[in-house]
Amino acid sequence: ISSSNMDPDVAWSLFEEGATLVLLGVPQGTELGIDCKSWQVGPRFRGVKMIPPGLHFLHYCSVNSPSCGGEIGPKTGLFLTLKPREILLANWDPKEEDLDFSASRNEEEVNRIRGTLRELDPFLGPYPYEVMRKWVSLTDHISEKLASDLQPLTGRICAFSDVVPELQFRHTKDRAEQPRNDTACQSMKEGLDRLPKMKHREGTELRFSVIPKKTYPPGATPAEITKCSMDLSYALEGVLEKKYENQPLNLLGELQFAFVCFLIGNVYEGFEHWKSLLALLCRSEEAMRRRKELYLGLITVLYHQLGEVPPDFFVDIVSQNNFLTSTLQDFFQFATGPGVDGILQKKAEKFKTHLTKKFRWDFDADLDDCAPVVVELPEGVTVD
């Protein structure tokens, strides 16, 4: 880790006020990183120093020794909020292949480490300050409380889901009721139906907002159902009301949290939630007229996020459809429509021009040839 390019005043300020992660016993070869940067741990590594106070994402992958094949394990990460001059102490647990931070709760031990920081200093790598600006631009809406509320109860964000069967099949009777596996499957569907239904192990799931499958109010008429299927404002307001009524901009924090979980933490579920949340925001026409600040913030958040991915990243390999262009096409159409604040309209136009230039995406294609929206009506509802 090198800090040779750092401004001397910044370096001195971080040396004085920066936090320190003391990470003892991390095996050589482990991939470990903080925020947007990662390294392979060497034999002298004891942690990271000069960390700017605030929110950070620590992530690591255990690695088998070269004699055992040298395979890299799935990534584990956690969000940490560090105070000025704070010391967090963790020991590597070889059995769990994870960092154990329980020593940080032992004040005596932390004070002992503080007293030996000078001796430890040559073994601590400086925080990669060159990624700080990028990191802040990707996380500026994530508060300490929001990160804590969205993280799994275990405190660990894992690239591979820890799943268990929904049914335990403890008794012979339970197993007898399951599809038999002693005959050949006649179809892919039959094969999938035979597999046991799985769920996240309790406490390991990310605690994202639930995006409603029904986007219309109870008792809605067919006309209202159609309207709420084309303009998702009712569903968006429901999500905001449930979790972010007093701080709607926290929804942008959740969008950033999901993106970081995917981009840095390799959590595919984070990407899926990011897409769902983005589609909800971009297809809420009425909300755009009423929530100017939320949508001005969304454009800035997307500007920074899309700077991190290659242009063809969002193309569906099967259909060659680009999820993002179709979603943003709706957004730009709504954001420049009647009743939308002039400042938001201008910013949306500017953003559209930027994306068209940078990614060569065409947001005006097929607008005249709008396909009809197919709407699922609830059982019992008929169109007169």
UniProtKB/TrEMBL annotation:
Residues 17-152 form the AAR2 N-terminal domain. GO terms for biological process: spliceosomal tri-snRNP complex assembly. The keyword Electron transport does not apply. InterPro entries: AAR2, AAR2_C, AAR2_C_sf, Aar2_N, AAR2_N_sf. Residues 208-364 form the AAR2 C-terminal domain. Keywords: mRNA processing, mRNA splicing, Spliceosome. GO terms for cellular component: spliceosomal complex. Interacts with PRPF8 (via RNase H homology domain). Component of a U5 snRNP complex that contains PRPF8. Belongs to the AAR2 family. Component of the U5 snRNP complex that is required for spliceosome assembly and for pre-mRNA splicing. This is Protein AAR2 homolog. It comes from Nothobranchius furzeri (Turquoise killifish). The gene is AAR2.
